[in-house]
Each structure stands twice: as structure tokens, then as C-alpha cells.
Amino acid sequence: MIVSPRNARIRLVRSLLSRPRKRRQTGAFLAEGVRLIEEALSADWPFRFVLYSNALSARGRELLERLKARGVEVEGVESRLLQSLSETETSQGILAVLDERPLPLPSSADFVLIPDSIRDPGNLGTLLRSAEAAGVQAVLIPPETSDPFAPKVLRAGMGAHFRLPIHILDWKEIRRRTLNLRVLLADMEGRPCWETNLRPPLALIVGGEAEGATPEAYRLATAFVSIPMAGKAESLNAAVAGSILLFEVLRQRSYS
């Protein structure tokens, strides 16, 4: 059992919690909690190791046995030490270090999301969760956006990371990947989404609510789309706006 905060695995976990550069350098990220680790296991995601404490629930202990049966290395940690690594108020008693191995991008995607300059981890994770639910085939993350593999994004994504290709790219590569797509940017001055044909292959850019989309996003866009609102709010939360537009694509393609 690990009891020292100077243990090499404990130090690695601490560095992965808050340092995107360390996640890139090591090619690893964290998943905390029973449900997220269940999702990773179901997706056959590559594990490096799992740490757990005696605070583990019955469901967590069952998960631990499944991990062992798959050959995943698991190691016990003193409860207070593991709690100190948790970003939640009450740790579920289990966390995993996973390989950062994004799913491959499809060769001919016709529904792509580009979350541009979305810096709030909760908003980005929620948007990724909606994207997976709406049938998005790939997510292209520009340089100005939060790290999609940060722990808070993972928690808000609720397992979307293990089912959805999510790739961090520069704008040149994003342009190359969207050459054959109509690129729509969510903008208050755009055509209402109900009046926009969203059936053809497209990429949807959703900008952050603080500063909006970047100049690079506007240069990439070929058209603009908006969400009609009856109230007096100036704008919607980026995750909410993006989710509405994603599901409008799904509605048009599947139910109209």
C-alpha cells in the first residue's frame, strides 16, 4: 500500500491533475471515479495503473476485480492520501492513469465539431458529451481551447472521450480536415438554425461565450448560423448553444 506523498505514482498523478504540458509529455491523463473508469474499461482503453483506497464502494470493488481480470495493475493507497489527489469534495476511492490515445479520425466525416476558444472545462466537457450523443463523428480542438483531457473536462464529458475521436490540431490542419465540409459558425447574426439546411456534410464551430470565436474561426467559416431567442438574453452558455445546434443537425437528418 502506498502511504508516502513522495511515491513516484503519487507524484505523477499530481502532475497530471493540473499540467497540460505534463499530460502531453507523458502521453497520459487521469480518470477519477467508478463510472468513468467503467466507461474506459468497456471501451478497452489502455490503462497504465489504477489507485484505490478502502473508501471504495461495493460497485467499485466489483470494478476492481474486473480490472485485475483484464491484467490492469492496481495498487492500494492510504485513504487520506488518495483523497488529497481528488478534485471532488468526496473521493470515490479510485482513479486511473490512462494512455492519451485519441480514437482515429474517420476518413470521410460528415458531422464535425470545432469548439473554439472554450476555456471553461465544464462547458467543454458538457459540449463533448452532447456531441457524442448527437452523433458527431470527430471533434477538432484548436489551440485556443482548454485541454480536452483535463480531469474536469473528463468528468463533465461522462465517458464521451472513450467513444468520440477528439484531436488537438492547429488551424492549418483543421482547415485541411474540413476542406470537403460546409463550415458553419454559431453567430448571433447568422441565419436561424431552423431555416438552415443542416443535412449536407458540415463542421460546426462553437465559440466561447466570453470572447466569441477567434479570427481564425471566422476565416474558416463559410456561413453563419444562429439560435432564435424570444427572451432578452444577449447570448446562451456555449455548451447550451452548441448542444441545441448539434441536436438540430440530428433532428433534421433523422426526423424531417
Number of helices: 10
| Head-to-tail CA distance between termini | 58 Å
Secondary structure: helix percent: 25-40%
Proportion in β-strands: 15-25%
Give the CA-based shape.
Answer: elongated
Order of helices and strands: HHEHEHEHEEHEHEHEEHEH
- Structural class by sheet pairing and helices: alpha/beta
Order of the strands making up the biggest sheet: 7-6-5-9-8-10
List the uncertain runs.
none
Task: Report the sheet with the most strands, covering strand number, pairing sense and barrel closure.
Answer: 6 strands, parallel
Number of strands: 10
- Residue-averaged pLDDT, rounded? 94
> What is the radius of gyration?
20 Å
Put the structure in a nutshell.
The protein has 256 residues and is an alpha/beta fold. The protein has helices spanning 8-18, 20-26, 34-42, 58-69, 79-85, 121-134, 151-157, 171-177, 215-220, 238-255; strands at 28-32, 47-52, 74-76, 94-99, 111-116, 138-141, 166-168, 182-192, 202-207, 223-226.
List its salient traits.
single chain; 256 residues; alpha/beta; 6-stranded parallel beta sheet; 4-stranded mixed beta sheet; 10 helices; 10 strands; 21% strand; elongated
Notes on the structure:
With 256 residues, the protein is an alpha/beta fold. 38% of the residues lie in helices and 21% in strands. It has a six-stranded parallel beta sheet with strand order 7-6-5-9-8-10. Strands 1-4-2-3 form a four-stranded mixed beta sheet, sandwiched between helices. The radius of gyration is 20 Å and the shape is elongated. The model has no long low-confidence stretch (mean pLDDT 94).
